[in-house]
Amino acid sequence: MARALTLPILFVVCGVVVAAVRIAAGSPVAAGIALLVFVLLAGLYSPLAFPRSIGAAEAQRRSAIDGRPIVYWRAGCKYCLRLRIRLGRDARRLHWVDIWRDPAGAAAVRAATGGDETVPTVVLAGRPYINPDPGWVREQLPQST
């Protein structure tokens, strides 16, 4: 989990430093705006921006039952963030596995990608797709009843 929080913590620390410099320069409004921007970036790049992760085994079990894709991701990945943002509310309809929190998930990604941990890796019906287009992923979701 510490790895997943490194970038968000770095954003917050940088925001505090920039805000302190702005305050020292006599510009408290600019300091507040800068701090807010850095805190928002920290939130976007933290695990909080994603639906709750589950383990790889549980995701595979659930996917076999409901047919929903599995998304293997990690915090700090700009491509994972792009997928998450572009899916919008539909992101909750997928099974998310954080490969930094689940060694079995990391192993599944390495097996699918030839040894590296390229994310996002979306697995649909047992077939992996590396960094797929978010529109395509949305089309693959089972229709709600």
UniProtKB/TrEMBL annotation:
UniProt keyword annotations, A-Z: Membrane, Transmembrane, Transmembrane helix
UniProt cross-references to InterPro entries, sorted A to Z: Glutaredoxin, Thioredoxin-like_sf
Pfam families: Glutaredoxin
Spans through the membrane: 29-50
Domain of life of the organism encoding this protein: Bacteria
Record-linked Gene3D superfamilies: Glutaredoxin
Domain Glutaredoxin residue range list: 71-127
Name assigned to this protein: Glutaredoxin domain-containing protein
Organism listed in the record: Microtetraspora glauca
